[in-house]
Structures are given as structure tokens and as C-alpha cells.
Amino acid sequence: MTTRVMIVDDQAMVRAGFAALLNAQSDIDVVGEAPDGAQGVELSRRTHPDVVLMDVRMPEMDGLEAARRLLSPPPGVTHRPRVLMLTTFDVDDYVYEALRAGASGFLLKDAPPADLIAAVRVVAAGDALLAPSVTRRLIADFARQRPAARGRPALRLKALTERETEVLTLVARGRSNTEIARTLVLAEQTVKTHVSRVLTKLDLRDRAQAVVFAYESGLVAPGE
């Protein structure tokens, strides 16, 4: 199955380079390019890509606002691509806000080509790009600057069983399903089921949002 990708970046050479690299893969097809967020949203609504590579900082409309519009479309618009944020900085408030909006993760622009290709495949498969340690550090840094949420986020935790809470805690610490299974002495398929139930009960889109929620609800404290 071919993954349809769109690239949104204000630098033409970046778009061309990424497009050439991705189009060289037999399972990836670049279906469009846009120089800013506004045009990216419009093009996405017409081409229906599976994954949008979205630069964080752009003129006219930045990547954060564009991600919000793609991931929370107006009534009548049913297409919601997965969004992978691109940034030149390893700590960026915009990226954190994009994760809260539903982006599936982020990647540094100077990452090796193989990482970009792998990132597109990971996100297209429905997973969040949380493996790089910089992602966990980013979330922890901003969670440290913001007090743990009170009220609604914490109350939503009560919907989880004890086991689901344990699984969410380990997800927030960056553990893979395999590592969680080993820690809790469970089958990996059982862990996947627990993760799916956590996302459903908390109305979260993927693991990236689960990590943010765990920090903001106070379930996990930075540095733990």
C-alpha cells in the first residue's frame, strides 16, 4: 500500500529535497507541496494525503495553526491526515502545542534521510513518533514549566482501570509496547489492547497525545 505524503515548508530546496528522497521509495508517493500553512491546508483538503510533513515556522500561517486546522476540521470536512512536524530546533514551544493539537510527533530537519523515511512510515502506520529522546525531553521541559492540570484532566484518569493507568504511565515515560510487556509481565498483544482502551477512554488520538495528557494531568512528573 502506498503512503500519500504532502510537504509544507517555506524553503523550496527543502521541499524539493524531501520530495526527491521520499518519491524514491516504492511505498511512498508525494502528492503535493506548499510554501506556507494556509496553502498547505487548502492543498490537503484537495489531495487527501495520509501524512503531512509540516514545518513549524512559516510566513502567512505557521505550522501550528495549519496543524490545528487539519486535525480539527470544520463540519463537513471528514479528511484528517496525520501530521509530522518538522523543526530546526530541538526544543520548540510550537511543537509542544502541535502535539497537544493532535500531531503525531516531530522530526528535526537535519535528521538523517533514513530517519525521515522511517518517520513517515511510522506515522502512516498510526503510531506516534516518540522514540527520539529529544521528544521526551521537549515534553518534559514544557510540562516542568506548566503546573500540573487541575480538574478535568485529572478527573478523566478515574475512567481508567489500575492496569490501564500503569500502562499509560509507562507510555508517558517513552517505553515501547515490548518494554511495557516486559515490565508488567504481559503479552505484547495485551499491552496493545490496553493502550487502545486508554486512548479510547481518554479520547486521545495516539501515543503522542497520551504522553502530553499524562504530564498535564499530573500522572507523571518531569524527571521521574
In short:
The chain is α/β, with parallel strands linked by helices. It is built from 11 helices and 5 strands; from the N terminus they run E-H-E-H-E-H-E-H-E-H-H-H-H-H-H-H.
Protein described:
The protein is an alpha/beta fold and 224 residues long. It has helices at 12-23, 37-47, 63-71, 93-101, 113-124, 133-145, 152-156, 162-172, 177-184, 188-202, 207-216; strands at 3-8, 28-34, 51-55, 82-87, 106-108. It has a five-stranded parallel sheet with strand order 2-1-3-4-5, sandwiched between helices. Helix 4 (93-101) crosses helix 11. The model has no long low-confidence stretch (mean pLDDT 84).
Task: Break the fold down into its secondary structure elements and pairings.
Layout: E1 3-8, H1 12-23, E2 28-34, H2 37-47, E3 51-55, H3 63-71, E4 82-87, H4 93-101, E5 106-108, H5 113-124, H6 133-145, H7 152-156, H8 162-172, H9 177-184, H10 188-202, H11 207-216
Parallel strand pairs: 1-2, 1-3, 3-4, 4-5
Uncertain spans, ≥5 residues at pLDDT below 50? Answer: none
Gap between N and C termini, in Å?
40 Å
Strand content: 5-15%
Helix content: 40-55%
Q: What is the CA-atom radius of gyration, in angstroms? A: 17 Å
Write the H/E string, N to C.
EHEHEHEHEHHHHHHH
Question: What class do helices, strands and sheet pairing give?
Answer: alpha/beta
The number of distinct helices, counting runs of at least 4 residues, comes to: 11
Per DSSP E runs of 2 or more residues, the count of β-strands stands at 5
What is the typical, i.e. mean, pLDDT? 84
- Sheet of most strands: 5 strands, parallel
Coarse shape: globular
Output the strand order for the largest sheet. 2-1-3-4-5
